[in-house]
Amino acid sequence: MTNEIDRSWLVESATFSRPVIREIQRAAREGIYDIRGFGAKRKLPTFDDLLLLGASMSRYPLEGYREKCDTRVTFGTRFAENPLTIETPITIAGMSFGALSAQAKEGLARGATAVGTSTTTGDGGMTPEEREHSRLLVYQYLPSRYGMNPDDLRKADAIEVVVGQGAKPGGGGMLLGQKISDRVAEMRNLPKDIDQRSACRHPDWTGPDDLEIKIQELREITDWKVPIYIKVGATRTFFDVQLAVKAGADVVVVDGMQGGTAATQDVFVEHVGIPTLPAVRIAVDALKDLDMHRTVQLIVSGGIRSGADVAKALALGADAVSIGTAALIAMGDNSPEYEEKYNELGTSAGFYDDYQDGQDPTGISTQNPDLAKRLDPDIAGRRVANYLRVMTLELQTLARAAGKTNVRNLEREDLVALTVESSAMARVPLAGTDWIPGFEHSR
Amino acid sequence: MKFDLAGQGIREFNRFLHGPESEGAVVEVDNPSGCHNLAVGALQNCQVTVNGHVGYYCAAMNQQAEITVRGNAGPGLAENMMSGIVRVQGNASQYCGATAHGGLLVVEGNASSRCGISLKGTDIIVGGSIGHMSAFMAQTGRLVVCGDAAESMGDSIYEARIYVRGKVASLGTDCIEKPLEEEHLKELEELLDRAQLNHSAREFKRYGSARRLYNFDVDNASLY
Known about the structure:
The complex is a heterodimer.
Chain A: H1 18-30, E1 35-38, E2 50-52, E3 73-75, E4 84-86, E5 90-92, H2 102-114, E6 119-120, H3 128-133, E7 137-141, H4 150-155, E8 158-162, E9 173-175, H5 182-187, E10 196-198, H6 208-221, E11 228-233, H7 237-247, E12 251-255, E13 261-265, H8 266-271, H9 276-289, E14 297-301, H10 307-315, E15 320-323, H11 325-331, H12 339-344, H13 369-372, H14 377-401, E16 415-417, H15 420-426
Parallel strand pairs in A: 5-15, 6-7, 7-8, 8-11, 11-12, 12-14, 14-15
Antiparallel strand pairs in A: 1-13, 2-16, 3-4, 9-10
Chain B: E1 2-4, H1 10-18, E2 26-30, E3 47-51, E4 66-69, E5 85-88, E6 104-107, E7 120-126, E8 140-145, E9 161-164, E10 175-178, H2 182-195, E11 205-209
């Protein structure tokens, strides 16, 4: 029989908390850093720290469900012969076949298509299922060039040159051997079961001047038909956005540090990059500085969860957002339905982040055929579509309340901040004041 | 058929190569003047001869076409080519044949650094020497070098095969010399023959992956 301990007087160290102690002991035991999926879990300034100002005496609102509030946005008006128009300013971000099952990729494609938006390929190339079920498909052009070929390039509705991603700006990727099925191996020209390294930088260009020529190459090969995006992880965002514009991008995608990943070192996910909140504002400032705001469209991603997040990103000046992790959650990732299975893996619904190990009980981040078949692409697609519709309705609700006939008419003036940090980052006044910390200072 | 780039634009020429009218065509291109992105994304079975030097990404993503450059080529020559034949009679700059998936790429002169980086199936044959970090992370395909190789050749190589006739300054991580068996002599002779380079296969040494880095092992962390 053990003695009952009075725990009320125990003081946990803020520096050496129980998770920190556990990680030190795990590192000492295993001799390897923690690689995991999902995105940053630390507390960061987010769109939750901003509020929208509804209409009142000085502004008048639009009638909910009655007066039109346009959500459509067009990308690639700068150079492309065939710009890409989406019906809602929420797109599905690039996630690879390999990291995700074919069923999950198809589910995302079906969901995006149902609401008239685009989805995006990922490392590993374009699968026929994904192309078939995507009305609008953005083809990622990545450093590894796994599965890259000009036939698929020409089938794309837009091309996204990936320079970096928010979860790991400056880092490459690693698809661990346990997720390399025959099909994944064949698409990537590598043997089965070996770790597949995705390079951190492109093999045939090294800077923005080279990238300008690279973009011209892609335009030449596709006969200048489709828009070309450049995706960067949020770090030195002002300069990155300006260099992307100068390199000839039609669209710049800025992915904040809350952006998800299938397999990255925990230390990278939690300690590199800047949050999405300041990244949006800085990117917009960079575009305005070049007089290219709205000429070059801006998509932001990284931790977008709701129509409120979308509304605030748009109010800061983005043209659209992308979702990744949230779309996986919509399909069933971390669902309590699989609690027992999660427990068998030593985790729990709501905490699962081991996308890298291929044992995902929901069938989403796996190549195990028995697990993958648990995900019905049709049902998954409907869930994604429902979720996108809810986010769009939420966005319109907020935009109408602010008196906007087009969601992109939301503006920075419609926002206030709840914290000093978010006020400084978003450059909107602290609620109830006209104070924006650091506004007088240069960037 | 002739294209004079002093008068006609590159875009017009590339569009021609993408269309069905280029099937079976024999084309000479004059006055390339080092321009970038010449003959990219060629789709048809045709013959293109470029009379002069070219800039970045010449013959990139080539499919089926036989493209000859009578001059030197800038960075990214034939990057991601899928099939066909690309031949440069002079030298090639950095990353020639990067991520190339298929076909034959011949550089009669020297190739600069990172030749065949992330190679995915093309056969690259260099008449002269290659620069540092060539065949970095090369996955599959073959790289034949009739001259010397600079530092860190074949770093992190996967299943690609490298044959070098001259000296290798140093091998990259996980790249080792391997025995030259009859099977390799045979494929090397065939490659030299296709490239129209007159060397004895027995003068070459073969290099490839030690396969120690195929699955992450913390004990190998010090290799980097």
